UniProtKB/TrEMBL annotation:
Protein species of origin: Kibdelosporangium aridum
UniProt superkingdom: Bacteria
InterPro entries: DNA-bd_IS481-type, Homeodomain-like_sf, Integrase_cat-core, IS481-like_transpos, RNaseH-like_sf, RNaseH_sf
Upper lineage: Bacteria, Bacillati, Actinomycetota, Actinomycetes, Pseudonocardiales
Region of interest: Disordered: 49-75, 311-332
Gene3D superfamilies xrefs: Ribonuclease H-like superfamily/Ribonuclease H
Protein name as annotated: IS481 family transposase
Domain Integrase catalytic: 130-328
Protein's GO biological process: DNA integration
Length: 332
């Protein structure tokens, strides 16, 4: 089809050509009549003489020959390295002595998926899915997070001072302290994300035992229920707390089906894994907190922003609340 600014449609080209060829109009007169250049009028008249009305359609702009195109043998090597090693354009280019843009064009020409869309273990494109209704599937996971010492960690003081709580920097004579500071240990972020809406519920807890995980789920289920979501299935990894009888019985008592990911396939639980990353980037490490208490106090506000106001790329820029009509506080 002609581009948006083309002065002639296929019918207009045919009429112009017929005026020149059949009615014997001068080229300049036909060009003035149809408001095009003389060279344009001549081109459509010549095509009409050679091909009749069939010549009025646009032709491909691809050149007949491409002398500078990457040789087929080199293209095959690029594709082989990509499939065998799962390298990006830059690494392949450095290996073969090519420009990264050249390698990128070859990969795009053969419609190879981007690396972020490929399973690194198998090389197969990741199959993405989304359940049709809120509650059809809830993704649950735990993220381990180091606590911040009073006065701030390495975000405030730099790596040398900030690592004073790391086990790698412990004084052998004083295994629990370095420079007079106690090792503050870790917190455990228990997260639950609805597959359809991406609505999230998070708690900061002290461990990842089966008792803690089961109690967290009971509160998470109340959260989803209060917002009009009836949970049908829960998907977790194969952590010990999720393989326990207590976790199994807690879900069974609520009539919820438990599903687990395949071993060494965290992408199956990718929605909550992506939420973990967002949580770290936009809350946990978003600014240099002075204390762990300060960081924890910022979580509820961030979670409200995530659920109600932050645009989600998988939801066409809308927040999770837009897919949960009964969500309280949706329009705050």
């Amino acid at each position: 089809m002609p581009h948006a600014n083309a002065p002639l449609t296929e019918l207009g080209r045919l009429r112009l050509a017929q005026c020149v060829v059949d009615d014997r109009w001068p080229l300049r007169q036909a060009a003035d009549r149809f408001q095009v250049s003389v060279s344009t009028a001549k081109r459509w008249a010549d095509r009409y003489r050679a091909q009749d009305p069939a010549g009025m359609s646009d032709r491909s702009s691809r050149p007949h020959t491409s002398p500078n195109r990457t040789p087929a043998r080199r293209e095959r090597r690029i594709i082989k390295i990509r499939l065998d090693r799962r390298w990006g354009p830059a690494r392949i280019a450095y290996l073969l002595g090519l420009s990264p843009s050249t390698v990128h064009r070859v990969l795009a020409r053969y419609q190879l998926a981007r690396l972020r869309h490929v399973d690194r273990a198998t090389g197969q494109p990741i199959r993405r899915y989304e359940h049709p209704a809120p509650g059809d599937l809830i993704h649950v996971d735990i993220k381990k997070l180091g606590n911040i010492p009073d006065g701030g960690g390495h975000k405030v003081h730099g790596r040398t001072v900030g690592h004073r709580n790391s086990s790698a920097h412990r004084d052998p004579a004083r295994p629990r302290k370095v420079a007079g500071r106690a090792n503050l240990g870790y917190s455990y972020l228990h997260n639950a994300v609805d597959d359809h809406s991406r609505l999230a519920y998070t708690e900061i807890l002290t461990d990842e035992t089966q008792q803690t995980a089961a109690a967290f789920w009971q509160r998470a289920q109340l959260f989803f229920h209060a917002n009009g979501i009836t949970v049908q299935r829960v998907l977790t990894d194969n952590g010990s707390c999720y393989r326990s009888h207590l976790w199994r019985d807690t879900l069974a008592a609520a009539g919820i089906t438990h599903k687990r990911t395949r071993p060494r396939r965290p992408q199956t639980n990718g929605k909550v894994e992506r939420f973990n990353r967002t949580l770290l980037d936009e809350w946990a490490y978003a600014r240099p907190y002075q204390t762990e208490t300060e960081r924890r106090a910022a979580l509820p506000r961030w979670l409200h922003t995530y659920n109600h106001h932050r645009g989600h790329t998988a939801l066409a820029g809308k927040p999770p609340a837009s897919r949960v009509p009964n969500l309280s506080g949706q329009y705050n």
